[in-house]
Specification:
- The complex is a heterotrimer.
- In chain A, 33% of the residues lie in helices and 22% in strands.
- By secondary structure, chain A is an alpha/beta fold.
- Chain A has a single domain (5-314), classed as P-loop containing nucleotide triphosphate hydrolases (Rossmann fold), CATH 3.40.50.
- Helix content of chain C is 32%, strand content 22%.
- In chain C, helix 3 packs across helix 4 and helix 4 packs across helix 6 (155-166).
- The longest helix of chain C is centred in the middle third of the chain and has 18 residues, at 185-202.
- The model of chain C has no long low-confidence stretch (mean pLDDT 88).
- The chains are: A alpha/beta, B mainly alpha, C alpha/beta.
- Chains in contact: A-B, A-C, B-C.
- Chain A binds chain B through residues 20-22, and chain B through 7, 322-323.
- Bound molecules: adenosine-5'-triphosphate (2 copies) and magnesium ion (2 copies).
């Protein structure tokens, strides 16, 4: 099976501060040498703690950000260096949904226009056709036809997220990158959106990149999961094995840290010390070693790369499995 | 720190250079302001005009004229007026500085003290009658034109009620040197101080009330309440303290502008020979050397005030310090 | 019993009439116990504890009912007396550690300020106590940390500082409003661990608010579920998780994707969205979203009697 999206050694650096500020220019290595391949029809979950570069990776994938390094081959086309104008035809095949749908929906436009906009820009359809398509999209995401004439602020968070999704699937894309699509929602509404996304995926044969920090949601939606720490992927694998038998100590600690409503027996909680370090001054060697419960001398100097061992892919000198 | 100062200095030089060049270009670019014709007088003969051109250097290339003028301001200090021949401009401008400084510093003290009182009181009683009353007074203060207010003040204190016990102490208009006559200096300036500060008291009082009220909505105020602090302490040590950051910025900009000559109307009404009055007169008869000197002086003060604000900012807001 | 809240109602006067945010909330907190409050956004969790703290400052708020702390009535108490309780006997930890501290003062200053407000000690003593407290909540190098400004600390460290501040006077009741919601999972685990330890050493009773049932399971002795400003269910933690009785609690538990075992093909959902407080249904507030609604639900259910209290007509009907 050929990959829908092949990402090789992707890096993204931001420069913060100026030469004139006290600390001078500093470089934030937000994404640091990520290689991935995304298969058609799968959902790749991207988890990690705040600031580990999930959103930045998502935005690089959709080329909302210029990438600093690496190669992106989407659907057979090398898009690493395409200009915004050259990207435009490809945008149809690759859409993005954001965490706060309200901030990404123009508050002064009606829902109809918001959803019709991509149809008009990319397909230049006649008005009647646009109308019927918008009605169809609203129905697909579980909104009522008369919602089309309302403004975003008249909707609840969950409904706004539905509008954002309708907009993203309007052009029947191949890939949808979802950046924390349910993080701002209450659990009861979150479940509705998760189900909706699953239905749409089945119906429209979509491929998802699903960014979230809520591990239970990621487990529910993902086929495969990539765990990120300080800009790099530390472990990647199919959802069940990541959760049932994590290989990287960070993955293990992350999963054990999630409080569970139902008490599970024999579960030992691993409490990491310290905070997530800053990507401005990352630790030497393995980025995780200062917090790692099993770190050894080698980890302080030698940076592990993603390697396959025992059928598991992790970046660790001393994987658990 | 040294680096920051150097940066400020170069910024100042850059601003002053830009502004002086702009003033110069505008002056010579404006039709009908041929300085030679003004200097030579109304019915001067072409020979006289030519002589004037030569002696003032107007026949020289543009950049030479500019450089000569800059040299005369900064190096030799012997720039003379185009209008009153022989009148040395630089000492004249320097003479006006104490007048303007006296006026502006006094007014600034008044307006800071009173606007703090008003802003804090209004915020403490927000949405109740003391707040509403103070804010209406503030609005009145903001909307009274300084020139008109000054004239009214003069009318009351100089003529109408001058002989009443209330205003008999008010000396005639004009400025007295502090070193010659401290009491006279003070008395002549009291009314101008009040006049100039009223606008700013109104403005700053309102701004301060708004920013304190905004600060009072912040989460950390709720924390302060949860700690069991008294309302007064919350208001002064937490809400006011964080609001001062905006207040100081505004103050620095206004103060710099006023010292730079924006107190013009007040100076004119009260017959104070300050920088503003000097600029005003120079603009009336398009006296480029005076305009140039005062403009440079003003930009110096505005940039200086900005630099001082930045320093105070760093003292007031630890977030600026480390990021 | 340290706190007894009876029939608490909080309403706000607005142009469109009275908005009732809390409608007859009653509960008690025993000495040294952890009472958890769960519920979705807007269900009134924060408002409940703000009422207890006397921190509802909106002039349009109307507070009715009774809140008794160690037998003293707090509703209508003079602000001056309330202030002496607040921060001393009842302390609070807030949700967002990023904004909960005044940005222009060091954390040491802010902790010392609280000590000096309630205790007759010298500045030096207060400062020393601040250092001790920071050490106790696990901030590394507390002698240096006292001189730090909030923005110089990470989210987790700030929340520790806030907790240290709340503990200054050994409060009998600690109110924690979603103290870990803004934090990362691994940091959340640290803070929950810390709270558990502190609770053991200080013995304060805790009211712990969260919308995360997992977090609740970690910490609470008893759990109270709120919906639209009302209490719908209350039981011990084990009873609630083992046998949730109210359809809302049940649906809430089921809508969380499981972390272990078989992944369900679809998640269970609750139809619709939480009601607007402006026009609550006449009967059971959850009625319109409830899959097991029946005729009786047109009336308003009351809580059954302890130990497992539920406000649902299904309980009596069975
Ligand atoms: N535009 C930017 N300029 C400078 N630094 C940035 C920028 N965007 C992100 N960063 C930095 O890059 C790192 C990764 O940020 P990113 O937003 O991708 O994290 P994230 O994993 O999505 O976190 P969260 O869970 O909080 O959304 C962070 O340290 C962030 O501060
Ligand atoms: N000043 C006010 N005037 C009117 N309504 C208010 C006011 N303050 C809060 N509310 C309403 O009170 C309700 C309960 O709010 P509360 O903050 O207690 O919810 P919560 O359960 O803590 O939610 P969250 O999980 O989002 O923190 C909300 O619907 C809110 O809109
Ligand atoms: Mg993000
Ligand atoms: Mg809340």
């Amino acid at each position: 099976m050929t990959a829908l999206y092949e990402i090789t050694n992707l890096s993204k650096r931001f420069t913060v501060g100026s030469r004139f500020s006290r600390q001078g220019k500093r470089v934030v290595q937000a994404v640091d040498g990520v290689s991935l391949s995304i298969q058609p029809g799968e959902t790749l979950g991207l988890v990690g703690e705040s600031g580990c570069g999930k959103s930045t990776l998502g935005r690089c994938l959709s080329r909302l950000y210029e990438i600093s390094d690496g190669k992106l081959v989407f659907d057979g086309t090398d898009i690493s260096t395409l200009s915004t104008a050259q990207m435009r035809p490809l945008r149809r095949k690759m859409q993005m949904v954001f965490q706060d749908p309200y901030a990404s929906l123009n508050p002064r436009r009606r829902v109809f226009d918001l959803i019709a906009e991509p149809l008009r820009i990319h397909l230049s359809l006649p008005d009647a056709e646009v109308k019927s398509r918008v009605a169809g999209l609203l129905e697909q995401v579980g909104l009522l036809p008369d919602h089309a004439q309302r403004y975003p602020h008249e909707f609840s968070g969950g409904q706004r997220q539905r509008i954002g999704i309708a907009r993203a699937i309007a052009l029947e894309p191949k890939l949808v990158i979802l950046d924390e699509p349910v993080s701002a929602l209450d659990v009861s509404v979150q479940a509705q959106i998760v189900n909706l996304l699953a239905d749409l995926q089945e119906r429209l044969k979509l491929t998802y990149v699903f960014v979230a920090h809520d591990l239970s949601v990621v487990r529910q939606v993902s086929t495969r999961i990539a765990v990120m720490y300080l800009g790099s992927i530390v472990e990647i694998g199919d959802a069940d094995s990541i959760f049932d038998r994590p290989s990287h100590p960070y993955t293990q600690a992350l999963i054990s840290a999630v409080p569970k409503p139902v008490n599970s027996e024999g579960r030992k909680r691993i409490i990491l010390t310290g905070d997530v370090p800053s990507p401005i001054n990352p630790p030497s060697g393995c980025r995780f070693h200062p917090r790692c419960p099993v770190a050894q001398d080698k980890c302080r100097v030698d940076r592990p790369t993603l390697t396959v061992a025992n059928g598991r892919t992790a970046a660790c000198h001393f994987p658990i499995i | 720190m040294i680096f920051a100062i150097m940066q400020r200095l170069s910024q100042m030089l850059f601003v002053m250079f830009g502004i002086s060049l702009l003033v110069f270009l505008i002056f010579f670019g404006t039709p009908g302001v041929d300085p030679a014709a003004r200097i030579a007088g109304r019915n001067a003969s072409p020979e006289v005009l030519a002589a004037v051109r030569k002696s003032f250097g107007f026949d020289q290339p543009f950049y030479v004229q500019y450089l000569t003028m800059m040299k005369k301001i900064f190096v030799t200090g012997d720039l003379t007026s185009f209008v009153n021949r022989g009148w040395k401009v630089v000492p004249a401008v320097l003479d006006t500085v104490p007048v303007t400084l006296s006026l502006v510093i006094g007014a600034a003290i008044l307006w800071v003290v009173f606007s703090l009182i008003i802003g804090v009181t209004a915020a403490a009683y927000r949405d109740r009658w003391p707040d509403k009353l103070l804010m209406i007074l503030g609005l009145i203060g903001v909307s009274m034109p300084v020139y008109w207010l000054g004239e009214v003040m003069n009318l009351i204190t100089q003529s109408r009620f001058h002989d009443s016990w209330l205003f008999s102490w008010v000396p005639p208009l004009g400025y007295k040197n502090f070193s010659d006559d401290p009491k006279g200096w003070f008395l002549t300036l009291v009314i101008p101080w009040i006049t100039l500060s009223i606008l700013y008291i109104g403005l700053y009082g309102r701004v301060l009330r708004a920013s304190i009220t905004e600060a009072l909505q912040e989460d950390y105020i709720r924390t302060a309440r949860a700690k069991g602090l008294s309302e007064t302490r919350i208001l002064l040590r937490h809400a006011l303290r964080t609001s001062l950051i905006a207040f100081v910025t505004l103050f620095g900009l206004d103060f710099g502008a006023l010292v730079g000559g924006s107190a013009l109307l007040t100076e004119v009404v009260f017959g104070l020979q300050g920088v503003g009055k000097l600029t005003f007169d120079a603009l009336q008869n398009l006296d480029l050397p005076v305009i140039m000197t005062t403009v440079l002086y003003a930009s110096f003060f505005v940039v200086l005030a900005n630099a001082v604000v930045d320093v105070i900012y760093i003292l007031l807001d630890p977030r600026v310090r480390t990021s | 019993m340290i706190l007894e809240v009876t029939n608490l109602r909080v309403s706000f006067r607005s142009e469109r009439g009275l908005v009732r945010v809390l409608d007859g909330v009653s509960f008690t907190v025993d000495e040294g116990e952890v009472l958890g409050i769960v519920g979705e956004s807007g269900s009134g969790k924060t408002m409940t504890v703000l009422a207890v703290m006397g921190l509802i400052t909106d002039p349009n708020a109307v507070i009715e009912g009774s809140i008794k702390f160690r037998g003293r009535e707090l509703v209508g108490m003079k602000p001056r007396e309330m202030r002496q309780l607040r921060g001393k006997d009842i302390a609070m930890i807030f949700q967002d550690p990023m904004t909960a501290l005044t940005p222009v003062y060091t954390i040491g200053w802010q902790i010392a300020e609280q000590i000096l407000t309630h205790q007759k000690v010298s500045k030096a003593q207060a400062w020393q106590r601040a250092i001790d407290l920071l050490a106790e909540v696990g901030i590394p190098k507390p002698e240096e940390a006292v001189h730090r400004y909030p923005h110089q600390l990470s989210g987790g460290m700030r929340q520790r500082a806030v907790i240290a501040m709340a503990l200054t006077c050994n409060p009998a009741l600690l109110v924690a409003d979603e103290p870990t919601t803004a934090l990362d999972v691994t940091v959340q685990a640290q803070i929950l661990d810390l709270l558990r330890k502190l609770q053991a050493t200080h013995g304060s009773a805790i009211i712990f608010i969260t919308h995360d049932l997992g977090v609740m399971a970690e910490l609470a002795d008893r759990i109270m579920v709120m919906y639209a400003g009302r209490v719908v269910e209350r039981a011990t933690r084990d009873a609630l998780f083992a046998d949730p009785k109210h359809p809302y609690t049940l649906a809430l538990l089921n809508s969380i994707p499981p972390l272990e075992g078989e992944r369900p093909h679809r998640l269970q959902t609750i139809a619709g969205a939480p009601p607007s407080l402006m026009n609550l249904p006449k009967g059971c507030a959850f009625g319109p979203r409830c899959s097991r609604k029946f005729a009786a639900c047109e009336d308003r259910p009351t809580l059954t009697s302890p130990p497992h209290e539920t406000a649902c007509f299904l309980i009596g009907a069975k």
